[in-house]
């Protein structure tokens, strides 16, 4: 295997090792995928400001997120179906992240359950919640996250309805994969992936299957999830969940400054400026383009983070320079997970850490707290 020097190297290996439908699930955006591309392109266009001879010996990438020291200002975002990218994927990714010293967020739509991950890592992690019509089920999920010792709840606000992702529809995405001729042909090209899946018992949505009345198989589960995302989601629901949870609350999916202010009023400890990786409202702006205004509006009242298009340590630095306290990564760690399991997740984090450290040195800053707009070229801000 050739040396892996960047996230794109992990991505290329990932494309070879994971079946097509799950690659497409990770890689796709909604509709024309315009917002997906904007996330990457707008970050790439921001030029950096090089400084020399300023004395940056003894620098560090460590900082704080929600009062917790972290090895770098990065958390693993909630990503559904990680257990289909690699057998027991959520468990492996959680361990790799926590061993590295950054937070891990388990998705509601994970393959490994809250209890699976808690038993495997034996350390606090974060849990992500979707608001569904069945509030009794939501209450049970929150109680299960509490019982598992989760240290923060990440409430996703931008999925009242599922964005139309053409690739998933064409692939007939399901977990486990439907035994169609096309799927079977593609699975035959990935024997290593298949062997790992045979060895694990985790093939369904672990947080849902067995916990909802009337859901007995994957076809009924698919129908249930399609019907359950709550179009009536409003700020009263956010306040109800905040009170029910009682702990640290992170609100994810904010693109509007007024929404950010309302999030603070509802008791958010952090907000994530996010367009769901370009997977919901196609045509929405990139996360990085709206970050500065939101950070200036509420950055003194809660922590402001960002996700969307982060593939390198330079992207992390740019986000912090424009007002974020930290970032969340999704696809970047999934590439590592699908390619090399937990080792790949650790590798992705180390690649980002090294790139961030090197870029900080060349921009003349020693600590995360010293990163501001001076590390960017004047034309970019």
Detailed description of the structure:
There is one protein chain. This protein is of the alpha/beta class. The chain has a single domain, classed as TIM Barrel, CATH 3.20.20. It is 46% helix and 10% strand. It contains 17 helices and 10 strands. The chain has helices at residues 7-17, 20-27, 34-44, 82-85, 89-100, 114-121, 135-147, 166-171, 181-188, 191-199, 218-228, 235-245, 257-265, 287-298, 313-321, 331-340, 342-363, and strands spanning 63-65, 68-70, 74-76, 105-106, 126-130, 152-156, 248-254, 270-273, 303-306, 326-329. The strands form 2 sheets. It has an 8-stranded parallel sheet. A two-stranded antiparallel sheet has the order 1-2. α13 (257-265) links the parallel β7 (248-254) and β8. It is globular. The N and C termini lie far apart (41 Å).
The N- to C-terminal Cα distance equals: 41 Å
Instruction: Catalogue the unreliable spans.
Output: none
- Could you tell me the CATH topology label: TIM Barrel
Roughly what percent helix?
Answer: 40-55%
Fourth CATH level, the homologous superfamily: Aldolase class I
Number of β-strand runs = 10
Percent in strands: 5-15%
What class would the helix/strand composition place it in? alpha/beta
The main β sheet shows up as: 8 strands, parallel
